[in-house]
Fold this sequence. Notes:
- By secondary structure, the protein is mainly beta.
- The protein has two domains: about 110 residues; about 120 residues, no CATH class.
- Helices cover about 5% and strands about 50% of the residues.
Amino acid sequence: MTGxxxxxxxxxxxxxxxxxxxxxxxxxxxxxVSSVAVLSGKGAAGVSxxxxxxxxxxxxxxxxxxxxxxxxxxxxxxxxxxxxxxxSNISSKTYPGYGPSSFLGSHLIYVDPSDKWSAIGPSSYSxxxxxxxxxxxxxxxxxxxxxxxxxxxxxxIRGWGITVNGIIRGSAGTASTALGxxxxxxxxxxxxxxxxxxxxxxxxxNNVAVTPGASYSIVVPxxxxxxxxxxx
Length: 232
């Protein structure tokens, strides 16, 4: 928050004070102020669709110090089966283009020092609304494709990964709010995967009533701004 004070020529003792917020904060109306002369601001800019990592398929065995509920031993074949299914799902499409309607994208097995284990997944979900440009695979720790998963053989993390690259969907900018008013963020125009995020436009309100001495929450997202100008 920053403040600027300036005297108005020919206005007697009246002084225009402007307080600027570029992050969340609180404004306390001075005891002599019942109206804000000018309240202006804007929200965050819109975000354009951009290239990047849109998903990570993970099929790993991990060490944990917490006692797990299932008797030893989990099987490497279970993780490998999830990985090959996920790879088959993602490779079933031609890229660039939209992804598969079913992607087996995660399977984690946690193993404690006594070789007991628990699992998260396997989980399947859709990538049919995600524009994909390609994918790469990784192998960590030269994992076997069969046999018992034992704590001593994991060395913290061991398994397979699929990194899915594509277009990250943008969005309209988040609005700022102050003194009961809303200052929209930038718009998001066009169609995914080529939509564009636009700069926010300043919105202005005049003669906004406030309660002398009252505290007001000011909400400003990153890149936004709110200016409060009043006479004292």
